[in-house]
Amino acid sequence: MFRFGVDYYPEHWPEARWETDARLMQEAGFNTVRLAEFAWSRLEPEPGRFDFDWLDRAIEVLHAHGIQVVLGTPTASPPPWVMAMFPDAYRVPESGLPATYGNRREYCPTHTGYRERSRLITQAMADHYADHPAVIGWQTDNEFGDRCHCEQCRAAFHTWLQRKYGSLDALNTAWGTIFWSHVYTDWAQIPAPLATAAPFGNGSHNPGLALDYYRFMSDTYVAFQHEQVDILRSTCPTHFITHNLMGAGYDRLDYFDLAADLDFVSWDNYRRMQWTFRPEVPPSEAALSHAVMRGLKQRNFWVMEQQAGSGGWQIVSVAPRPGELQLWAYQSIAHGADAIIFFRWRTAHFGTEQYWHGLLEHDGRTGRRYTEVKQMGAELARVGSQIAGSDVRAQTAILLDYDTRFAFQIQANNPAFHYTAHLHDIFQAFHRRNVTVDVVSPESDFAAYKLLIVPAQYVQSEATAAAIERFVKRGGIVLVTPRTGVKDETNTVVNMPLPGHLATVCGIEVEEYDSLPEGVSQPLAFDEGTAMVGRAPQARIWCDVLRVTQARVIARYTSDYYAGTPAVTANQYGAGHAIYAATFGDSELYDTLADWLLDLAGMEGGPETPEGVEWCVRWNGQERIIFVLNHTTEPKQVPLDGGYVDLLTHRVLASATLELRPHQVVMLAAERMPTGATGTSNGGAGRIAQPAQ
Ligand code: GAL
């Protein structure tokens, strides 16, 4: 069943209104509602006194309207009594200044008292709802994250380190603490990496210590979640367990680890949040987030919070234009969402999020946004069963590494370098070509792919390098970008030429490198005889100066003291090729490389669509469900290469051109399948669909 619904806070509204809300939800086609993730003070008004009556009544009203329920464990926002009970449970951010009461996520995830309260409320909820016919699953907490640097965390870090290193000698060697005489002679001397260690902001902690602390913090949240998961699994074995994560950009937790305990991941997909530094999230960034979320467990995911209106805490974002809510939600589905749950039902009158707009207005009116979503509900009633159970398939993968992300937080290398932005720069080139890209962890099996992208894998284990080498040897194509293989797992620089363990596969060695000032770039020149002659991408941010040992030179720098030296190389290795791009380039570089790499890997791009129009494919066995999404405010025309059926109307498209209104989404199926078609592709139309007779 395709899940469609909303996040609802019955505790915010008079009980007399619940029936109207549930009826309107049912009329919108909703079958699922998330409840209770911020309701701790109503569920446990005082220590050990639980009150589920109100929630039972709310669930009953919803269930009577055919709606099932996901319950959130409410631990992201403790009631005042919890924090009064544990004044030392306030989270201490890197600044060293402890949180105080009044927002949310102010708790320290190590605190044993807080952890106990978390287990107690989770167990009480699980006991109460294990056999409830309307309850289908659980969301743990809400958007885990935020490091704590308190004394309890520091003590727990010591235990974590003892388990990892066994002895202080081993730790001192691993971190290189001889530098600045940081040799630890007692575990208790080891600090948490607070900003106060460098009061003038001009320094950072030992990189080995800091990376271990970030890993420890990530492990701590995973352990915090695990306690809830344990309870929920044993008490409610028929329910699923998920968590709402925060997309590709969130980098304080190892999401692969957090996801390992879950049945599937969910995430919160906001496209317009004027109060943050990112007022507008472009479609390709949302697509990357979807790919990351899909990649965490190599399976479909839920969107637990899909934007329902203007965002806003203090400042109100630009309103979603007509069609945008649907467009954004359908994009989620196109990239692998098996559920769309809008955040939130009705706009709150009170609290921090008074201006975070729900589907209904403050006064409970159903306006434009509700009507739009209701229309989508009607559409999903027609096509939802086809979408449910379908999946997204790719032959290209991009490697995402959280150790690397943590290490770049400690040493950015260049102020203009941002790991997620770099991933996105490359991803975007494939996205523009409508090529589906999977996101994989360093531990993944790469064998399923033809093309693997290894963007700046700064901290690289020998095992990962060996897996990449095997992948190439057996015929895979790999693209490696600068700052790969610089560090081993202790976050110390490797004692060999870069890119470290990949130097042989890549057939080059980095002799030296140049970190460029902001705004400085230089054109690259492709060598005669390469398919890319005439294209002129720019090198930016970083230039490795290479010595070729085996590889063929594809492109060269054109200025500075390394003018004429290689900037892009290709090395045949075994049955495959390793491409090394020695600089972080502009979009032209990744566009150029994408065309070439697809060609090398023997893959076609997806079908060509006008700028701003996305073409995505979900597979149902051998059949495709194609989503064509117009992200622009202009009408667009998409040439079709064959006969297609509009899935909503079941009408065969009469013309070879698909006309799209601004923000329109069309779902298509190929009119018929030729014999011998296979289910693996980039999502391209041409290889599988045949022209209509
Ligand atoms: C999410 C969060 C929600 C709500 C929303 C809008 O990050 O999970 O509880 O706060 O943002 O701000």
Summarize this structure as a short list of keywords or feature phrases:
alpha/beta; Rossmann fold; Immunoglobulin-like; 3 domains; eleven-stranded mixed β-sheet; 30% helix; binds beta-D-galactopyranose
Averaged pLDDT, please? 94
Rg computed from alpha carbons, rounded to a whole number of angstroms:
26 Å
Named once each, the bound ligands are:
beta-D-galactopyranose
The main β sheet shows up as: 11 strands, mixed
Structure described in brief:
The chain is α/β, with parallel strands linked by helices and about 700 residues long.
Topology (SSEs and partners):
Layout: E1 3-7, H1 15-27, E2 32-35, H2 40-43, H3 53-64, E3 68-72, H4 80-85, H5 112-129, E4 135-139, H6 151-165, H7 168-175, H8 207-235, E5 240-242, E6 244-245, H9 255-260, E7 266-269, H10 283-297, E8 301-307, H11 324-334, E9 337-343, H12 368-387, E10 396-399, H13 402-410, H14 419-432, E11 437-440, E12 451-454, H15 462-473, E13 477-480, H16 503-506, E14 508-515, E15 521-526, E16 538-548, E17 552-557, E18 566-573, E19 576-581, E20 583-585, H17 587-600, E21 613-620, E22 623-630, E23 636-639, E24 644-646, E25 657-660, E26 665-670
Parallel strand pairs: 1-2, 1-9, 2-3, 3-4, 4-5, 6-7, 7-8, 8-9, 10-11, 10-12, 12-13, 13-19
Antiparallel strand pairs: 14-16, 15-16, 15-17, 16-20, 17-18, 18-19, 21-22, 22-26, 23-25, 24-26
Bound molecules: beta-D-galactopyranose.
